[in-house]
Design goal:
Elements: H1 11-38, H2 43-50, H3 53-81, H4 85-110
Helix pairs in contact: 1-3, 3-4
The structure holds protoporphyrin IX containing FE (HEM).
Length: about 110
């Protein structure tokens, strides 16, 4: 029987995606927190920071990590807890649609 898999077609690759993406999300959150703790935010300062090349690249990486993280994480939870095939299909489709919308939305805002 073909095994039911999440994002990458392999459970162990999904596991790696879940952990690496969690690290990227955690580091991004710490960078944000650090910036707010060390600056008096004005619109110009914030805009300059977020539109700098390193932050654009880091934000793109964070959005990709978020997509992978939410996809694998929610796929795992729904597969474990929603026993009805039809309902799980609907919820997983909604989840995939939501993360793809966030991906395109995020890319449109920043690039
Ligand atoms: C700052 C942002 C985030 C960080 C640092 C983070 C970190 C983590 C970590 C460390 C785990 C545990 C991995 C494990 O041991 O299996 C985890 C699991 C999970 N995360 Fe996140 N996460 C973040 C955002 C999100 C978001 C936005 C979602 C949206 C759906 C999400 C959904 C999940 C789910 C569903 C799991 C459980 C997966 C499982 O039980 O196998 N996370 N996250």
């Amino acid at each position: 029987m073909k095994s039911a898999t999440g994002l990458t077609g392999s459970g162990s690759r999904d596991w790696v995606v879940q952990r690496i993406s969690a690290v990227v999300l955690a580091v991004y959150s710490l960078v944000m927190l650090g910036w707010f703790l060390t600056h008096q935010p004005t619109f110009e300062l914030w805009q300059g920071f977020m539109l700098s090349l390193p932050m654009r690249l880091f934000t793109l990486l964070m959005i990709l990590a978020l997509v992978g993280h939410a996809w694998v994480g929610m796929w795992t939870v729904l597969t474990d807890y929603v026993k009805s095939n039809g309902l799980r299909f609907v919820l997983q489709s909604a989840m995939i649609l939501a993360v793809l919308v966030y991906l395109f939305w995020g890319v449109m805002i920043f690039f």
